[in-house]
Each structure stands twice: as C-alpha cells, then as structure tokens.
Amino acid sequence: MKQWVNLYRSELKPVKQRLTLSKVSTVLSAWLALLITVVVITQWQHSGVVQKNERLSSTVTTLNDDLSRFRESMSQRQPGQQLLAEKATLQQQLQDTRSFSQQITEFQRSRSASVSAFLHELAEITPEEIWLMDFSMDGENIRLHGQALNSEALVLWMDKFGQADLLSDKRFAVVELKRSEQGYQQFLLQSVRTSEDE
Q1: Domain residues for 41?
Q2: In the chain, what percentage of residues exceed pLDDT 70?
Q3: d(C-alpha 133, C-alpha 146), whole Å
Q4: What number of H helices and E strands is found in the chain?
Q5: In this structure, is residue 99 part of a structural domain?
Q6: Given CA atoms 26, 27, 29, 30 in this order, what sign does their dihedral have?
C-alpha cells in the first residue's frame, strides 16, 4: 500500500538556525574558563613541587653541613692518654711479632740449608747396595733407616761416613739389624754422643 508524503508541509520543512554572537561568546567563554582552570591547577601543582624540592634541598644542605662539621671535629679531636698507651703497646707487640717471625724464617732457612747439605753428602757416599728409606734430624741426633744388600755393604757404607764433612765428626751405632723376608738386611742407625761432644 503506497503512502504519499507531502514534503511541502510546514512541519517537515527544515528549520534554519543562525549562529548568533551571543552563542559564540558563550562557547568561547566556557573554553576560556576551562583553560584558565587548567592553567591555575597546573601552576598550583608546580608551585607545590617546587616548594617540596626547596624543602628537600634545604634538608640535604643542612645534613651536609652537619656532616662537614662532624668530620672537622673528628679530625681535630686529640686522642686520650689511655688510647695513646694502647697504641704504643700494640705497636710494640706488632714489632715483637715481626721480629719473632723473622727469626723463625731465618731458622727455617738455615735448617733447610743444613738438611739439604746433609742429603747431598749422604747421596754421594751411598752405594747402590744401600737403600735409605727414612731419616730424621733432631739437633745433633740423626737416625737412618733402610735396607742393605748384605752386612758387608752396610759396614763399608758406614766406613764412608768419615769422608763426609757433616758425618765425619759423628759416631753411629746400629740400633736395629734384622733380615727381611726378601733376604735384605734391614737396619736402623743412630748417632751417639762421643766424649768430645761431652
């Protein structure tokens, strides 16, 4: 079913409204008021941040000044008599400790040198028929433990002690002598004190 519309009726005609000066001024006033409000709020926040930064800077400056005064007072502070006495005692103890450590080092060096010289001489006079398994040096006391191919090789080896500089002035006694399962002579020699040593 068709319907006809009369486009020329008064209620269907478009209404033309003109933008008046009052409306334009109202819109501009609203935008200007909004802009001013935003600017005021921004400046207020900025001023708050600036004041906060100034307070923090002032606090930091005060702390730095206090720290500088504290350091200056500490540098100018004179130690008490008790502290000076303790310092002198500690310095003396440190010096004594260093001196003792140096003495120990020198003793170890001389001891090591004497042991090295002793082993060198012992290696020069020891034949292939003798196997030295262990030795000990305690001052003038020397102990030699090992194996010999036979008793004759042990006697000949002990005779060579007189040719060594470090062993020529010592006398050795056979503390232990026994035959091993392989047929070798196991021996233990120990230096003995002579009448000259006494």
Answers
A1: 23-77
A2: 80
A3: 5
A4: 3, 4
A5: no
A6: positive
For 187, phi and psi rounded to 5 degrees?
-130, 160
Over 80: is that where the pLDDT of 186 sits? yes
Task: Count Cβ atoms below 10 Å from residue 153 Cβ, excluding itself.
Answer: 17
pLDDT of residue 188: 92
pLDDT in tens, 5-20: 555 555 555 566 666 7
pTM over 0.85: no
Is 184's pLDDT higher than 70?
Answer: yes
Helix (H) or strand (E) holding 97: helix 81-125
Last residue of a domain, one of 58, 77, 96: 77
Q: Give the count of domains, the chain.
A: 2
Using CA atoms, how far apart are residues 137 and 191, in angstroms rounded to an integer? 10
Distance (Å, whole) CA 162 – CA 180: 28
Distances (CA, A) of 65 to 14, 68, 70, 102, 133: 80, 5, 9, 49, 76
Pair 164, 122: CB distance under 8 Å:
yes
> Does any domain span residue 2?
no
Segment 69-90 shows an average pLDDT of 79
**Residue 165 — φ and ψ, nearest 5°?**
-65, -45
Confirm whether 133 is domain-assigned: yes
Q: Residue 180's domain is classified under what CATH number? A: 3.30.1360.100
